[in-house]
Design goal:
Elements: H1 2-46, H2 50-54, E1 57-67, E2 76-78, H3 80-92, E3 99-112, E4 116-129, E5 132-149, E6 152-162
Parallel strand pairs: 1-6
Antiparallel strand pairs: 1-2, 3-4, 4-5, 5-6
Amino acid sequence: MRTVVLMCLVLVFILLGQGRALGENMRLEDRARIADQVAKYAQLWDRKDVEAFSQLFTEDAVIEWHFADATAQPPLLKGRENILQYGHKAQAERLAGRQSRHHFSNLIFEDLTETSALTEHMFMVTHVTPSNPPIVRSTGIYRIEWRKTDEGWLMSHRKLFIDRRAD
């Protein structure tokens, strides 16, 4: 009887260890998938592919901008459709004739569960035109809330903290 109890305990410890390892592997996979989405964010915007860019967000996503010296409520975009419209307008007007490059670093996970995450990373955006060298356009921090959906990890709330004044 004692041998059976010991064997059962050993089996329980083995199974618990495998479950813990499986959970850790899932967390690592989720972190990698979110990091891929962060990279896609920069690439898709810089490629001017606003259709694919908008698909990185949930249907009810919110985008905020916070400028270093702002005293008023920051601008907000609500919903994937409005994000798509903003992207088309920005690429056709403000970014027309120039190439932007988003440089991201120091991705950290403030929180990560099976269905949600909170990340933060630094950024620097450069702009270049055919006749001028690149200039640093802005720097700051992205703070992003993520939701795991049937389509994968999508941004549900993106806050951009910009180190400079609003133009």
